[in-house]
Amino acid sequence: MTPRYNIRLNVQDLTLSRGDQTLISDLTLALGPGQALWLTGPNGIGKTTLLLACAGLLTPDSGTAQWIQQDSELSSREALAYAAHRGPERSGLTLGEELAFWQSLNGDSLSLEERLTSVGLAGRTKTPVIGLSAGQRRRLSLARLMASDRAAWLMDEPLAGLDTDGRALVTSTLSRHLTDGGMALIASHQPVPINGVEALKLVLEPGA
Amino acid sequence: MMGAILKRDLQLAARGTSGTGLSLAFMALFVLLCGLALGGSRPDLGPGLLWLAATLSALLGLDRLYQPDQETGALAQMHLSGASGLAIATAKSLSFAITGLAPLIIATPLLALLLGMDGPAIIGTILSLIIGAPAITAYASVTAAILAAQRGSGVLAVILTAPLLIPVLIFGTEAANTFASEGIAAVQFRILAGLSFIAVALGTPATVAALAANRGPA
């Protein structure tokens, strides 16, 4: 069986700063299909900044982050889906309207109800977004990742606010994605267990 | 793609997050106060006052066009989901025209009666507002996109947009005034239409560029 995705990430001499503070200097790493990278380190060290740079949402001071599929470069928006720490949902909408919007942008093959069921939010279509708990918002953001059909998933604190079931859901979803040949970059303070794959660990340290 | 973004904006507007009611109330108050300050009805000043009222009221809700979606990171996510800058700018501009501008134009005849304007003057004002609407929308979209990353930039948006709208305001008022004598073929209407075309031609790429420049960290 050929894997569904085939993607590589090449980070070359990446230097990132916020304001006048250099957060990451000369970072080089390479990631291939089926691999996961666990980014960890103290608050404000630049985990999110690194994710943003990989997502192409932030211009690095120097160096490059390239996405490669079958030897040709892919734009970041074709390569990845990004689950930010704070989701893009608007408080005026219901859960169903919000998720249906992102499904239609991404051309998701599953129906709204199927997608909600897959993240344990079945029957919540009419719940206003403003009434969702932190854990339910994480589940919604997981649903957006799954709806995107992108090879690389960038996840910022995917376990924050999740209960035991929710953490198990993240583990099983991620494991399946990596088995499909996908890739994951995870910024998290706690390890994210993945079945069958040992995540590479990158610890960002001050002055490193 | 564009339809989905527009639909979402209309859903949000239906929940009252676009400030349409506020703009309508401001416009009514503005016309009412003008009537009081000018001492009785002044139908000759009607078209000018209505143009001023509609423009300023529409600009009031400008900080709700891109700013909330910028703040939550929704604009960046739309970009990553494959929506082009042009699709986002067009959908947002249409939503502004529908939820921010159209209600004001619909309210215009009622307010015109308040000012004691006659039939041709009212029709002239409405037509000129409709023809000038693309210009108001395009310039409004540019400043809203530039200020998307600034919190509480509502007044600044009005200040930045108003100078761009001066020619539109002049010819809009003149077109409304000449409608009674020369009809829709008056040169003022044609200039107004030309101003709208220029605004859309300049405003659309400028909006796309401003959104791209603001894409950074959410």
Automatic annotation (TrEMBL), chain A:
Protein name as annotated: Cytochrome c biogenesis ATP-binding export protein CcmA
NCBIfam families for this protein: ccmA
Taxonomic source organism: Algimonas ampicilliniresistens
MF terms in GO: ATP binding
Keywords: ATP-binding, Cytochrome c-type biogenesis, Membrane, Nucleotide-binding, Translocase, Transport
Domain ABC transporter span(s) in chain numbering: 9-208
InterPro entries named among the record's database cross-references: AAA+_ATPase, ABC_transporter-like_ATP-bd, ABC_transporter-like_CS, ABC_transptr_haem_export_CcmA, P-loop_NTPase
Superkingdom of the organism of origin: Bacteria
The keyword Iron-sulfur is annotated on this UniProt entry: no
TrEMBL record, chain B:
Membrane topology: Multi-pass membrane protein
Keyword ATP-binding applies: no
Pfam assignment, any one: CcmB
Top-level taxon in the UniProt lineage: Bacteria
Matching InterPro entries: Cyt_c_biogenesis_CcmB, Cyt_c_CcmB_bac
PANTHER family: CYTOCHROME C BIOGENESIS B-RELATED, HEME EXPORTER PROTEIN B
Family, per entry: Belongs to the CcmB/CycW/HelB family.
Name of the protein: Heme exporter protein B
Source organism of this protein record: Algimonas ampicilliniresistens
